[in-house]
Write a structure and sequence with these properties.
single chain, 297 residues, alpha/beta, Nucleotidyltransferase, domain 5, 41% helix, globular
């Protein structure tokens, strides 16, 4: 009999839930906006979505969160109001009477990519997620790297500049420049008007030189961060995902060039930098796999 996990991928703007089998098949899925008020209302929304999934065969619940998941299942999520130490696992466990796993979305994404994505045959993998922020899920020697305080992979805080700007205090240096928010900020300075990253990419693909240069500069800065990861961790593959990855080679070509220039040369030759083909499925499948492994299902 196949086991199933009911899982949620929580983001700052949306919540995706799914029923996932132990082979990785998604049988049902739903999507809803994240309540902007935050607090316990977000937990209630997650629970309401999960109750709409078929419960037959469900043996566990898993949630990937955009922040720090503590060992007791409580969560610090800076982009969700009121989530300083939200007791997410306890609240869901009391309602569903099932074991609950809570983990960071970066760990979920790298696990999903390793399970059913481009990194299936790799034991040393980094998943770099670039959206509103930047985070990295890391598998080294086949094991997730978590760090002493579950903070391993906070890649947005890597220093890629030698002059400290005030904006770095809130989000970190790399994230300030190379995240979706950072790229949009740079675009506003270039075009002197509000500009989303998506619109900037559309302009670049239409041949706008200023748009292409803005994205290329973000790619160059991203490449410095990737070079540091490669030199320290010597991965076989770096998979880039998240909304900003939609820029494709506009972003990744300069990132790869910078990586090769700055990283340890032997390690730079051994790594591939690719764009994820899984989209949001990586997080959903990753949470499910973490559930199956944690609860030995």
């Amino acid at each position: 009999m196949e086991h199933f996990a009911l899982v949620a991928d929580l983001g700052g703007t949306k919540i995706a839930v799914a029923r996932v089998g132990s082979t990785g098949k998604i049988t049902h899925s739903l999507l809803a906006p994240t309540p902007p008020a935050g607090g316990a209302g977000v937990v209630e929304t997650i629970a309401n979505l999960l109750t709409q999934l078929p419960a037959q065969g469900a043996c566990a619940i898993g949630v990937g969160v955009p922040g720090v998941a503590y060992p007791d299942g409580s969560v610090w999520a800076p982009n969700i109001s009121g989530w300083k130490r939200m007791p997410l696992a306890r609240m869901l466990g009391e309602q569903f009477k099932l074991p609950v796993l809570v983990d960071s979305d970066r760990n979920a994404f790298v696990t999903g990519e390793k399970w059913h994505g481009l990194a299936q045959d790799c034991s040393d993998v980094i998943f770099v997620m670039i959206g509103t922020g930047i985070g990295a899920g890391i598998i080294s020697g086949g094991r997730l790297l978590r760090g002493h305080g579950e903070l391993s992979g906070c890649a947005g805080w890597m220093a890629v500049r030698d002059k400290f700007l005030l904006g770095y205090e809130a989000v970190g240096c790399l994230e300030f420049h190379a995240s979706g928010t950072g790229i949009a900020r740079a675009a506003r300075q270039v075009f002197h008007e509000p500009m989303t990253t998506q619109h900037l990419v559309e302009l670049a693909r239409a041949g706008d030189e200023k748009a292409m240069q803005t994205i290329a500069e973000a790619g160059r800065i991203l490449g410095l961060g990737l070079a540091n990861l490669v030199s320290i961790l010597n991965p076989q593959i770096i998979v880039v995902g998240g909304g900003v990855a939609a820029a494709g080679n506009l972003l990744l070509t300069p990132a790869r060039q910078t990586l090769r220039q700055w990283a340890q040369p032997l390690a730079a030759k051994q790594v591939r930098v690719v764009r994820s083909h899984m989209g949001s499925r990586a997080g959903i499948l990753g949470v499910a796999k973490l559930c199956f492994d944690q609860f030995q299902l």
